[in-house]
Amino acid sequence: MNTAIVTGASSGIGLSIAVKLIDLGYKVYGIARDFSKIDYENSNFIKVCCDITDTPNLTKEIKRIRKEEDIYILVNNAGIGYFGMHEEINPAKLSKMVATNFQAPLVITHLLLRSIKKSQGYIINISSITATKPSRFGCAYAATKAGISHFSISLYEEVRKYGVKVVTIQPDMTKTNFYDNSNFREGDDEESYITPDCVAKAVETILTQRDGTIITNITIQPQKHMIKRK
What we know:
The chain has helices at residues 12-23, 55-68, 91-119, 139-159, 196-207, and strands at residues 3-7, 27-32, 45-49, 71-76, 122-126, 165-171, 184-186, 217-220, 227-229. The chain is of the alpha/beta class.
């Protein structure tokens, strides 16, 4: 049985990807700060409580998993966003976005790269459509996502000769709790957002290509563009 690691696996996109991978026959180590609100149980879903911004503890947990398993898939999904005028977002929030969205994926990838080279597996980075365009009232968040998107492109060129597949998924507005602390959310119309399952199905599409064919980038958008102010 192949093994995957998924960060941010306690809800939303991360949980949907973890469940999809388990349905496809993978053993999944899900990493998140808190699993108390999750009601999903499966013998192939191993919950790892860890704050990925705590680099020493994150390193310890990843090394522990690496000793026990050969990793075939890494999904860097955990993310956080604070939105508003840049001058109004305090330094602690800026630091948290950089640490969660950009620094942690680089650290985890570094720690697992030799294992994934060995398995000729996948590194799937969940970025954002904001990485591809100007983002008023979210320029710092967009910058962290642009960073991870560019990291994916560069890393693929570095490791493709070893059989490693590096993929970026760039979702648009997704119906999750991501916007709970924002002053806006997805629209009420079902065509104004995508769902976590849409992203999980994209992961399945990535994994089911013929050998030698790699989808390196997927952007997922709703049919309609609507944002509702709270």
